[in-house]
Amino acid sequence: MYFNNDTDLYRTIGSNIKHYRQQANLTQMQLAEKAQISISYLSKIEASGCDKSLSISVLNQIANVLNVEINDFFKEDETNAKTS
Hints:
By secondary structure, the protein is an all-alpha fold. It has five helices and no strands. The chain is about 60% helix and about 0% strand. InterPro entries: Cro/C1-type_HTH (IPR001387), Lambda_DNA-bd_dom_sf (IPR010982), TransReg_Diox_bact_type (IPR050807).
């Protein structure tokens, strides 16, 4: 997997997080609470509007709640990234 820039990277991560959240039938509020992050931060991540670097810790917290591997967030698979 190769990303041309940070924007493409964040877009892919955000799209995949949204996909897996919806697949788990969780609202943004539910995921944010379970991952112990703010709903506004999660909303920015999913909308590719993250204005600060995502930490591995935050990605791990989200992955644990969604019961997926962190590397799933980086996949550019059409079925994951475009099902939002």
